[in-house]
Amino acid sequence: MMIFVETYVLGIFYYGY
Known about the structure:
Elements: H1 2-16
């Protein structure tokens, strides 16, 4: 389930950037 969390964080990071 770590991949799911990473994807979520990456998505927010990219969205915020």
